[in-house]
């Protein structure tokens, strides 16, 4: 990060760290630019959310785990504790209640090029989704949360 040491009171990484290849380096840099007493807020996905759920629906058609586990709710505190004095976790309990198969088919097809699931034939996707809908709805778990890490010394 191209800022001087102890520049910021607060740093925010909103749904970002799961894209970062070198998590220790990123967190070291965040710690460096935070002032003593500063707070790092970072929101991230869990390993049991939307994408992983959709991947599980098509496990017979493709052999792929879509979820990036670089930085998740499950392992984030372990990473953060190496660089920050205290780390709290806030979980956001939520789910998607999907009522349109067409919209969900389009969403899954948008994975094309980054996932085998997006390359499945529309009819295969549609039939699988139809079998999962119950009373006109498919409930998909979402797993999101935020870590609040403090630099105390």
From TrEMBL:
Keywords: Methyltransferase, Transferase. GO terms for biological process: methylation. SUPFAM superfamilies: S-adenosyl-L-methionine-dependent methyltransferases. GO terms for molecular function: S-adenosylmethionine-dependent methyltransferase activity. InterPro entries: Methyltransf_11, SAM-dependent_MTases_sf. Residues 2-42 form the Methyltransferase type domain. This is Methyltransferase domain-containing protein. It comes from Streptococcus pneumoniae. The lineage of its organism: Bacteria, Bacillati, Bacillota, Bacilli, Lactobacillales.
């Amino acid at each position: 990060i191209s800022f001087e040491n102890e520049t910021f009171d607060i740093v925010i990484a909103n749904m970002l760290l799961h894209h970062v290849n070198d998590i220790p380096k990123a967190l070291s840099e965040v710690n460096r630019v935070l002032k003593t007493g500063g707070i790092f807020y970072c929101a991230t996905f869990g390993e049991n959310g939307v994408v992983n759920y959709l991947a599980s629906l098509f496990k017979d058609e493709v052999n792929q785990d879509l979820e990036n586990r670089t930085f998740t709710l499950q392992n984030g505190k372990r990473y953060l504790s190496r660089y920050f004095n205290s780390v709290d976790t806030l979980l956001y309990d939520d789910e998607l209640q999907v009522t349109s198969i067409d919209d969900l088919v389009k969403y899954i097809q948008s994975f094309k090029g980054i996932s085998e699931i997006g390359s499945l034939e529309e009819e295969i996707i549609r039939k699988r989704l139809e079998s999962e809908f119950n009373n006109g709805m498919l409930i998909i778990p979402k797993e999101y949360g935020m870590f609040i890490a403090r630099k105390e010394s």
